[in-house]
């Protein structure tokens, strides 16, 4: 199974937090990353998005259908995100568009085996995969990409 973690792009400050929209820089970050993802993601990828405005706007930059998931809202847990994605039992890749520190904690759990506060920069993607070798599950980082590294 493949789990792609995309942190929302930069958002404007404000309250309430759930209503914060992407900044001009954030819209550019989302568009660049969406271009890279669109050329890389399999067509059958399931996309789950936190219900906040900034995550929805990040997802809209990709131009693919997505589903809002309350389990991905700020303050969630790594376990809730894994359950929403059906990790590792799922067959299709899942793109999660969410928040820090939750995505960093999830990446640490999957890669290092324990929740830690790993930073994931705004607009960046961590692509994590699992394969079975000799009846053992192996979880590995397939890619890490930042918007400023996407070529035009």
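^ Assign residues to that structure.
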């Amino acid at each position: 199974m493949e789990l792609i973690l995309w942190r929302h792009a930069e958002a404007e400050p404000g309250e309430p937090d759930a209503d914060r929209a992407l900044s001009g820089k954030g819209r550019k970050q989302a568009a660049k990353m969406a271009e890279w993802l669109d050329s890389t993601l399999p067509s059958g990828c399931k996309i789950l998005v936190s219900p906040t405005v900034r995550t929805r706007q990040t997802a809209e930059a990709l131009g693919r259908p997505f589903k809002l998931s309350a389990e991905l809202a700020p303050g969630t847990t790594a376990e809730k995100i894994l359950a929403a994605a059906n990790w590792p039992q799922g067959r299709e890749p899942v793109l999660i568009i969410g928040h820090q520190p939750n995505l960093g904690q999830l990446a640490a759990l999957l890669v290092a085996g324990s929740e830690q506060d790993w930073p994931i920069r705004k607009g960046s993607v961590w692509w994590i995969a699992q394969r079975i070798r000799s009846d053992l599950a192996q979880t590995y980082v397939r890619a890490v990409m930042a918007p400023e590294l996407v070529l035009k």
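Strands lie at 2-7, 46-49, 67-68, 94-98, 125-133, 136-145.
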